[in-house]
Amino acid sequence: MAKIGEIDLGKFPLLLAPMEDVSDPPFRALCKEQGADVVYTEFISSEGLIRDAAKSIQKLDIYDKERPVGIQIFGANLDSMLKTVEIVERSKPDFIDINFGCPVKKVVSKGAGAGILKDIPLMVKLTEEMVKHTNLPITVKTRLGWDHDSIQILEVAERLQDVGTKAIAIHGRTRAQMYKGEANWEPIADVKNNPRMHIPVFGNGDVDSPEKAMIMRDKFGLDGAMIGRASIGNPWFFAQVKHYFKTGEHLNPPTIRERVATAKQHLEMAMKWNGERVGLFETRRHYTNYFKGIPHFKEYRLKMVTSDSKEDVFNVFEDVLNKFG
User: What are the tens digits of pLDDT across the range 74-118?
Assistant: First the structure.
């Protein structure tokens, strides 16, 4: 059984990865309904929270139906990160996750995210001080290293555990790789198999089929799989993996009716959370993915992403049901 502190996650939990502009409350709720065992917020800038930036503050919204839920923060300044912990605690997450893995230039250039992989002592110090500063479990998400020549994940994971980290999720690429090439899970398995390690070690990167999740579990022996890009527009992925684990068979892909119902539900939750105008706008990016692979769909997709009222979007959904359902 995997545990984060006292939180029991069950055997080989499936975790929804923190993804900017994707892992908002409506999407997390949909993934939770489909079997995600743990969800994370989008990553949140510590400097943004301290400045009271509206976008950062809004990312702190979490709901009881999501639990267990972790709020993920990033930064490289100790004072800022400690102040951020105090702000985050008010939202009452189940744990706080530190992002030491984001490869995006605007984050890395400030020494945060994967940028901190060039300064392991600072990475360990930040983690240690944050653990001391809160009673909430602290977890870490990181990468194998800055580049191929600087992979020290075995030592890094040990040091993070030794200062009180309760779980570690490792993406099987270096920062230099960004999202290119294949994720390498071997070094993650080495961390898991290190006899000194006793906290959960979750694998991340390229888990895009039930078979791959099973390989991560059975061949590599990891404690859980963190799912990122495979879930975008496909919250059913969690149910598909669990069904495969249980039966060895694939679930049928969602029907048009199920896709439309999920798209409607997503839009309604987004408008409730964010207001009609913003909710409509922010849900657009998901429509392309919900209806991916359906032939001759371009006309309907275009209408979905250009409609400016919920009535118009709901009318397009009805048209889709009539045409393809």
Answer: 999 999 999 999 999 999 999 999 999 988 899 998 889 999 999
pTM here is: 0.95
Share of the chain above pLDDT 70, in %: 100
Residues 243 and 266 in one domain: no
pLDDT, tens digit, for every residue of 186-198? 999 999 999 999 9
Please indicate, yes or no, whether residues 51 and 185 belong to a single structural domain of this protein. Answer: yes
Judge if 196 and 243 occupy the same domain.
yes
| Run of H or E residues at 303 | helix 298-306
What single DSSP character describes residue 92?
-
Q: What is the DSSP letter of 114?
A: G
Domain boundary among 194, 212, 247: 247
Find residue 15's DSSP bridge partners.
Answer: 38, 226
Q: What distance in Å separates the CA atoms of residue 133 and residue 62, rounded to the nearest whole number?
A: 22
Q: What residues make up the domain containing 231?
A: 2-247
Q: Please give the positions annotated as active site.
A: 102
Q: CA 302 to CA 22: how far, in whole Å?
A: 20
The answer to whether residues 162 and 271 belong to one domain is no
Strand partners, 142: 100, 170
85: DSSP letter: H
Token pair belonging to 81 = 């990160």
Token pair 């990160």 is at which residue? 81
Statement: residue 54 has pLDDT above 90? no
Taking the C-alpha atoms of residue 53 and residue 61, their distance in angstroms, rounded to an integer, is: 14
